[in-house]
Amino acid sequence: MSTKQLGKFETEVEIPEDVQVTYKSNMLEISGPLGKTHKSFKKIPVDISISDGKVSLKAVGTRNKNYAIMNTARSIIRNLCEGVIEGYTIKMKIVFSHFPITVKADEKTVLIENFQGERAARKTKIWGKTKVVPKGDDVIITGHVLTDVTQTAAEIENNSRVKNKDHRVFLDGIYKFEKKKGIEK
User: How many CB atoms are closer than 10 A to CB 98?
Assistant: First the structure.
């Protein structure tokens, strides 16, 4: 390969001003105004170094697979940096036709009660330091780690899925309708 082609196997991510990034023994720690988070790069084959307010990434090999892994690592780091500055919000809508669904949130679980008249509440795990706030017919999920926020929303949506009935007729459930950057109060 020529040096021009090898240059595509290296990239950099700018670190915003009020974000501190440290990398020690395959663990990347990022802290900012909204909080602190970490990501393990033990199983992601990328060489990482931090200097002059930039995170430098270098692919381990020269195949397209290595190029794709490097760019995935770049987007993970960029999302973590954006998250500790702005945060993420997902809004979900509670939809029901006959039995009114109620949603309650504790520290680590979300309870979906009276789903299609069921007596036992359905429980869903809250990932990381994500906050879940039910407001009327909406459920607002906020946090500073994108993967935790989206995983919590996905599990709530999957846990309120209609089973053993025609899903075209029985539309009850909790559905995501908005995803944006920034934490909504």
Answer: 8
Question: Is residue 156 within 8 Å of residue 110, measured between CB atoms?
Answer: yes
- Write a three-state SS string for the chain: CCHHHHHHHEEEEECCCCCEEEEECCEEEEECCCCEEEEECCCCCEEEEEECCEEEEEECCCCHHHHHHHHHHHHHHHHHHHHHHCCEEEEEEEECCCCCCEEEECCCEEEEECHHHCCCCEEEECCCCCEEEEECCEEEEEECCHHHHHHHHHHHHHHCCCCCCCCCCCCCEEEEEEEEECCCC
According to DSSP, the residues that pair with 176 across neighbouring strands are: 92
pLDDT in tens, 82-109: 999 999 999 999 999 989 999 999 989 9
Render the burial of 134-164: b for 16+ CB within 10 Å, e for the rest. beeeebbbbbbbbbbbbbbbeebbebbeeee
**Res 170 pLDDT > 90:** no
Q: What are phi and psi of 184, to 5 degrees?
A: -90, 140
Residues composing the chain? 185
Q: Which two tokens stand for residue 45?
A: 């084959």
